[in-house]
Amino acid sequence: xxxxxxxxxxxxxxxxxxxxxxxRGIDMVVEKxxxxxxxxxxxxxxxxxxxxxxxxxxxxxxxxxxDSTDITAMKEDEMARFRREKIGFVFQQSHLIPYLNxxxxxxxxxxxxxxxxxxxxxxxxxxxxxxxxxxxxxxxLSGGEQQxxxxxxxxxxxxxxxxxxxxxxxxxxxxxxxxxxxxxxLYSERQFTIIxxxxxxxxxxxxxxxxxxEDGKIIRDEYR
Amino acid sequence: MKVLSRFxxxxxxxxxxxxxxxxxxxxxxxxxxxxxxVAMVTALAGINSGIREKLGAELKAYGANIxxxxxxxxxIEAAALDKIRGIQHxxxxxxxxxxxxxxxxxxxxxxxxxxDRLKYSGWRFIGDRPAKRNEVLAGIDLRDALRLAPGxxxxxxxxxxxxxxxxxGFVEKGGPEDSSIIMSIEDAWELTGTNNVFSAILVRGEPxxxxxxxxxxxRDVPAVAAKTLRQxxxxxxxxxxxxxxxxxxxxxxxxxxxxxxxxxxxxANVFERKKEIGLMKALGGSRSQITLFYTxxxxxxxxxGGLSGFIAGYLSAQAIxxxxxxxxxxxxQWMILLSLxxxxxxxLTASHFPVRGAMRYDAAAIxxxx
Lengths: 224, 370
Fold this sequence. Notes:
The complex is a heterodimer.
Chain A: E1 8-16, E2 21-30, E3 35-39, H1 46-54, E4 61-66, E5 69-70, H2 76-86, E6 87-90, H3 102-113, H4 118-127, H5 143-155, E7 161-165, H6 173-190, E8 193-197, H7 201-204, E9 209-214, E10 217-223
Parallel strand pairs in A: 3-8, 3-9, 6-7, 7-8
Antiparallel strand pairs in A: 1-2, 1-4, 4-5, 9-10
Helix pairs in contact in A: 3-4, 3-5, 4-5, 5-6
Chain B: H1 6-21, H2 24-62, E1 66-70, E2 76-77, H3 79-85, E3 90-103, E4 106-113, E5 124-127, E6 135-139, H4 140-146, E7 153-158, E8 161-172, E9 180-184, H5 185-192, E10 197-198, E11 200-205, H6 210-220, E12 224-228, H7 230-272, H8 274-282, H9 287-325, H10 334-358, H11 363-367
Parallel strand pairs in B: 4-9, 6-8
Antiparallel strand pairs in B: 1-11, 1-12, 2-10, 3-4, 3-11, 5-8, 6-9, 7-8
């Protein structure tokens, strides 16, 4: 196990695209169990940072170490295994499979991780307040309900890290508050690490630490 | 790829079935593409396997490839026929009596031959064949010219005398026979006043051995000339070769077209499921776990298309064979395995590149909606 002080460590991470630089030499350390909000204007590199931490994208240069493992040196299938063991995702769009019902969507994450267990998946939906909707397809659910299912799916395999990219971006204030309360409750129960990207100050304030990005760089790092 | 437990296989099949049930139409179209190609290949292979034998038999019926004619006179002794039949590489031989008969003062060609042998020839019959003495066949041109009908009595006159014959039916061959009177050799001998002699003997010899057969005939049968019909012989070989080349080309084109069709269906399917693939990657799905969905789909498309293609191809081959050769074709049992293997190959080849491309999708960009 890596040190709790340096659970996630980025060293001089850059990401260059053909026409622009998304990240410029990012150095950053996240402690185990921290809730970090990453804020900044559109195009500041927040989502790219999240994608590089998840291994869905590779940095042009630099190193990403998670739980003492250098993920930038991993091969594709090693990265996939690492991702399903350690990381849960919540996106702005729900990205639920439309032809699977709520419990089956959660079971899909179990399937890739180990063994799909319907009872366990139903319990996880119960914990996010969706126990009464397990047989419903995504099209029969509201945006807030869909995000709850995404949270259940992200946490079903007990990941150590939850990466959330604008998870409330498509929700109204009331639903945003409910989702954040849910996340906060689960975070308190399980103490996983949250990296949450948002441009909404209301959402950002739920984190214990806020990193502000601009033009591919971290310009501010505040603890609350 | 790790070996899946029975439980994991059940779970995989559960998600796979859900996924396929959403795209039944596409899967059916892809299976149909494979089926068409396999059906065409099976039908052509089936026909091809029997075509030499069948076409050989047809050409055999179509005509002789050696004509034996008298060298110093008008006729050949009937005993020569048995001698010729006994010569090596001779497949068949039959004597013919050729002459002229008169109907109401008009001269008509007369062909006397062994009527039973006509059953195996390429002649088309209308009405009945002669079943007893004094029954004749008329060519269709003669039928039209004389307005003949089955059962009509014809008074035929020749050097040997005059006799009445009943028209039992008509024949069509597309040659001078269509304006002739055809009767049994015995009737022809009696009508023309000849006996136990032939005007010519038509010999069917094994293609490629004709020169040797002709030499043997001249050696064994006195006072005859044997002429090989090289054009007939070489045309047979040339026709068979061209047909086989044509069938091979059609087969290759069918395979190519089917592969392209399945590839485009799989590509469209993969493109439609970009988001799903991105999500599977984000959920930690490995390359093998994700491709297993598509490979299994390809296997199902290949096997169902291969099996239905074999059935359709077999039925088509039988229909074509019945129409063209009047007989059934026997397909070897391994052909069903070949059809399944062909269906699988088409589906797996066609899905290989789209699926490989799908694995290169930038999951992060897809999930951002880019």
